[in-house]
Design goal:
Bound molecules: adenine
Radius of gyration: 16 Å
Number of domains: 1
CATH superfamily: Nucleoside phosphorylase domain
Distance between the termini: 14 Å
CATH architecture: 3-Layer(aba) Sandwich
Largest sheet: 5 strands, mixed, barrel
Strand order of the largest sheet: 5-9-8-6-10
Length: 228
C-alpha cells in the first residue's frame, strides 16, 4: 500500500507531515507533496486547498504522479443531522455532490455517464478508519455531501436535509475525491470531524474549531489508523 492523505487546510493535517520519516518534498501544480514513512506505512501527504476542483486535481495527481494505491481524506465538516454533534466524527460510507444538477438531461445529483449519484467508499479502509476514530470520540457512518459552498445558514442545511434525509455531514471536497477514485479504480475513504452545525453560527464555530481542536483530532486518528 502507498497511501495518499489529503486535507484541505493545514490545521486538518497538523503534525502529520512532521511525523513522516525520511520526508521527500516535491512541488507540483501549486501544491507541496511530502512522501515518507508514516508509522511504517508508505505515505504521501498533501493539502488540496478548498473545493471540489482543488480536491479532484490533488487526488488525480496523487495517483498519476505519485503512484498512490489508496487515498484517505481527513478534515472537518458541518453537521447534517441533529444526532451528529460538534466533536463527533463521521466516516463516509457514501458521498454525493449536493450542488450537481444536470436535470432535465440527467436526474438531480447523478454524475453523467457513471449512472451514479452516490459513490461508495472502500469497505476495508472505512472499517479501519472508523475503528481508529472510535478510540478518540463518538463515530457515525453514512452519507456525506460535498459542494462548492460553505453551508452557513439554517435554511441551507434544512433544504439539503429535505433533499437528502440520510445526510450526516456537509463539506467541500470528499465527493470530488470519491468520483476521481471511482474513475481511476483507487480504494478511498473520507473521515470528518464535526466543527459546526452548518447553521447561522457555522462560520464562527468553524473558525474556533479549526484554530483550537482540529489539529489534535487529525493526528490522533491517522496515527491510530496507521498502527491499526
Ligand atoms: N466544512 C466545515 N464546516 C462546513 C460547512 N458548514 N459547510 C461546508 N463545509 C464545511
Amino acid at each position: 500500500m502507498r497511501l495518499g492523505i489529503i486535507s484541505a487546510l493545514a490545521e486538518e493535517q497538523h503534525g502529520l507531515i512532521e511525523a513522516l520519516e525520511s520526508p521527500y518534498k516535491l512541488v507540483h501544480g501549486m501544491r507541496e507533496y511530502t512522501a515518507g514513512k508514516l508509522w511504517e506505512i508508505d505515505a504521501v501527504c498533501v493539502l488540496s486547498r478548498i473545493g471540489k476542483v482543488a480536491a479532484a486535481m490533488t487526488a488525480a495527481i496523487l495517483v498519476e504522479k505519485f503512484g498512490v494505491t489508496h487515498i484517505v481524506f481527513t478534515g472537518v465538516a458541518g453537521s447534517g443531522d441533529k444526532n451528529v454533534k460538534v466533536g463527533d466524527i463521521v466516516v463516509a460510507e457514501e458521498l454525493i455532490q449536493h450542488d450537481f444538477n444536470a436535470s432535465p438531461l440527467f436526474p438531480q445529483f447523478e454524475i453523467p455517464l457513471t449512472g451514479l449519484s452516490r459513490f461508495a467508499t472502500d469497505r476495508a479502509l472505512t472499517e479501519r478508519l472508523a475503528g481508529a476514530a472510535a478510540q478518540t470520540t463518538r463515530v457515525h457512518r453514512g452519507l456525506i455531501a460535498s459542494g462548492d459552498q460553505f453551508i452557513g445558514k439554517l435554511t441551507q442545511i434544512q433544504a439539503l436535509k429535505t433533499a437528502l434525509p440520510d445526510l450526516l455531514a456537509v463539506e467541500m471536497e470528499g465527493a470530488a475525491v470519491a468520483q476521481v477514485c471511482f474513475e481511476l479504480g483507487i480504494p478511498f475513504a473520507v473521515i470528518r470531524t464535526i466543527s459546526d452545525n452548518a447553521n447561522d453560527e457555522a462560520a464562527v464555530d468553524f473558525m474556533h474549531f479549526i484554530k483550537t481542536v482540529a489539529s489534535r483530532y487529525a493526528y490522533e486518528v491517522i496515527e491510530n489508523f496507521c498502527k491499526w
